[in-house]
Amino acid sequence: MALFDPKGDIGMQEKNLILLALGLMLLVVIPVILLTLYFAWRYRASNTHATYAPKWAHSTAIEVVVWTIPCVIVIILGLVIWRTTHSLDPSRPIESQTKPVRVEVVALNWKWLFIYPDYGVASVNQLAIPVGTPISFDLTAESLMNSFFIPQLGTQIYAMSGMHTQLNLIADSPGVYAGRSSAFSGPGFSDMHFDTIATSRADFDAWIARAKQSRLSLDRATYEALATPSQKNPVTVYAHVAPDLFNDVVSHYMPASDRSPVCEAANTALSIARTGAQSPVKQAVE
Question: Which residue ranges run through the membrane (predicted)?
């Protein structure tokens, strides 16, 4: 039911899409159910007043109705889906005058790691975001595929090892929203959840300041230990995150000879796409 209580613009659009599609499909389902019950009663064996036509086989009027209405509904659904597929594309940036907050997400077994590259901090099983600010997610997985989902903010998306997916969300109201893995990934799946804490910008900045004071650092050795499968991990905050840690996780399964140029080109293209800046590298990447 969290899907029907959205707290962000993307979640609200998806709720409206679900209700619209449901309503259009019920235009066929409800009449069919009612007519089935009516026909069963009307043409029961004991009703001698109903017309008995054992040789009846065709009615043009009925054929027109039963084919035209579903076809019209399918066409409308097709147009709606075509439009929303583009407008709700997970990688499409949210239009806003506020600069997005970037969060790099790594699905571990069985916990979530959130890295804030612009602030140099990270957290495990806790996602802090400012209200009214677009959140630009970059997602990957250490090993098993997982599905990142905050139902009240919208859009489930997969995180896969060796791959880099993107997601853009926004929270319009302060609150604590449940986040989870919605794809079974092993024995720790049921406890692989996190709290999304949406606060004012001032409170978010205060959370970042507290995170920077953490005595824990997320260097590569610490990450390797963190990546070891474990369950029910407590919330942990890190300061001094190793540079390019997320990119190293993405390229972990690439051959050493291919890793550097491929990752550099991909990261440059992503940076250009997000900032809208122009670079000579863009032509080479394309």
Answer: 17-41, 61-82
Same domain, 83 and 174: no
Could you give the angle at which helices 9-42 and 60-87 cross, rounded to 10 degrees? 170
114 closest CA partner among 133, 142, 143, 137: 137
Shared domain for 258 and 131, answered yes or no, is no
CATH number at residue 208: 2.60.40.420
pLDDT in tens, 131-179: 999 999 999 999 889 999 999 999 999 999 999 999 999 999 999 999 9
* Amino acid present at 237: V
pTM of the complete model? 0.80
> Which 3 state secondary structure label does DSSP give 166?
strand
Assigned domain for 216 exists? yes
Place of tokens 């027109």: 64
